[in-house]
Amino acid sequence: MTRRLVIVVAFAAGLLAVPGAQSASAGWVVKGHGSGHGVGMSQYGAYGLAQNGRSYEQIVGHYFTDTRIGRTPARKVKVLLDSGSGVRFTHGTRACGRELRRGQDYKLTREGSAVVLRRANGNRLSACGDSGLVRGAGGRVRIGGEGVYRGDLVADEQDGTLLVINKARVDDYVAGVVANEMSPSWDQQALRAQAVVARSYAVATARPGPFDHYEDARSQVYGGLASETAATNRAVRRTKEQVVMHRGQAATTYFFSTSGGQTESVQSGFPGASSSPYLKAVNDPFDEISPSHDWTQRLSDAEMESKLSGLYSGRLKRIEIKQKGDSPRIVVARVVGSRGSGNVSGPGLRERLGLLSAWARFRHR
């Protein structure tokens, strides 16, 4: 959903400490606030609220209006880890109808449109059909090239490719997410809020098909057992099976790094999205602890012209803000050229220019 927080902070630091090559007299100065899409829970804002005495229930309720915390029935999620022609694994107890030796390496490979269980040396052991399920020893399985994961390994043949999937209880999945999305050193109430929000997002966005989620920021950053810490696991245990509920259903609880002081409504933050009663803009009073609460980026004329190529013709003259969201984030901007101009969404402009957020203003020097 978000990149690792440390990466976000490092990127923010890189924008704040502008290289000398970009500090020439001519060029563009972009001043902005926040980091990320701006919809849902600000992680630094949650941290600030926790430092100021708010419980995780209060933190969640602050960002997701018209919701309550409820429980989801015990369930499993399927996370896509990799794809290819085969997968090596260890610490399986049973696969494709055969008992396995613990500690011994095996492989699941594709053979035509079927999955086949083999020894590590390639000897064929069993046909699995179009999907192979490996039960982990002690509830864990080591997946070659990926790491150790709680739950089971699934190898699913789809259109000539073998999908490598971890099937795990939702709380085990969340345990492998939280430390990747929020620093384990942060206040426990913030970590618990992150656990509830990550769990809600996982339940609400489970997709039909062979897997529910990706292992990266397309869903949430998930690293399995290696990502778990004592602090984040405690947060997961203390919020066991808890999700954010709206009208009896798990809410789609987006989150991001830094709000800059105000979050954004979903219809303004994500072009084409419908409005939601629980994804509205809210003030974020304690977000200023983030290093990317305020930022400045400098871009040369050549950089701006290259990054905005195709949106204007002639010489780049200015950026006009045509529409803002409920926060000051850009919803629509117009890129004005001397011979032609074009519109771009705020998120599109942010992506093209590599900005931390769409809450930005532009000045040409």
Molecular structure report:
The structure is a single chain. The protein has about 375 residues and is an alpha+beta fold. The chain has 3 domains: about 5-35 and about 295-365, no CATH class; about 40-75 and about 170-290, no CATH class; about 75-170, no CATH class. It has 10 helices and 24 strands. The strands form 6 sheets. The protein has a 7-stranded mixed β-sheet. Helix 6 (about 190-205) packs across helix 7 (about 230-240).
SSE layout:
Blueprint: H1 5-16, E1 28-33, E2 41-42, H2 43-51, H3 56-63, E3 68-71, E4 76-84, E5 86-90, E6 92-95, E7 98-99, E8 106-111, E9 114-119, E10 124-129, E11 131-136, E12 140-143, E13 147-150, E14 152-158, E15 161-169, H4 170-175, H5 178-181, H6 188-204, E16 213-214, H7 230-238, E17 242-246, E18 249-250, E19 255-256, H8 266-269, E20 294-299, H9 301-307, E21 316-324, E22 330-337, E23 341-345, H10 346-353, E24 360-364
Parallel strand pairs: 2-19, 4-16
Antiparallel strand pairs: 1-20, 1-24, 3-17, 4-15, 5-8, 5-12, 6-7, 6-11, 8-9, 9-10, 11-14, 12-13, 14-15, 17-18, 21-22, 22-23
Helix pairs in contact: 2-6, 3-6, 6-7
The portion of residues assigned to helices is 10-25%
- The 3D shape can be described as globular
How many beta-strand elements?
A: 24
Judged by helices, strands and strand pairing, the structural class is alpha+beta
- Detail the poorly predicted runs: 3-24
| Total number of helices | 10
